[in-house]
Amino acid sequence: MQPSPRQVRISAYKLIAFQVAVAAVTALGFAIGAGELAAKSAFKGGLIAAVPNFVFAMFAFWTLGRGSAEQARTAMMRGHSLKIILTIVLFVVVMQQPIAAGPLMAGFILTLFAQWSTAIFFKH
């Protein structure tokens, strides 16, 4: 049996919440080990990964179950394009602030790796 569009949307939002949790845990680790600037940088890096995924989910799953397959494909493509653009914009904005580059990238990469756990969230 196929999952309902609502179940798919909820699973996507759970994944994004998990990514934010990964970002927070990474930031906590850096707060303990390297200080406030490193912790803030790691959390910002995590948000740079999670926020575009949230925007993608909003666009990609908005028409799911409501429109044609072509509308769903178009929504996915727009969501993915916006996700890439938003990631770049967020990196540019954050790079204008005082940051620690290593923790920033660590937070981004660890949060991005959380996407590999999608099988856990999309298991119905």
TrEMBL record:
- Protein name, entry field: ATP synthase I
Superkingdom per UniProt: Bacteria
Keyword Cytoplasm in record: no
Membrane-protein topology:
Multi-pass membrane protein
Supply the source organism's classification. Bacteria, Pseudomonadati, Pseudomonadota, Gammaproteobacteria, Chromatiales
Keyword Transmembrane helix (UniProt):
yes
Which residue ranges does UniProt annotate as crossing the membrane?
A: 12-34, 46-65, 77-95, 101-122
Indicate where this protein resides in the cell: Cell membrane
What keywords would UniProt list here? Cell membrane, Membrane, Transmembrane, Transmembrane helix
Please classify the protein's predominant subcellular localization into one broad category. Answer: membrane
Would you tell me the Gene Ontology cellular component terms? plasma membrane
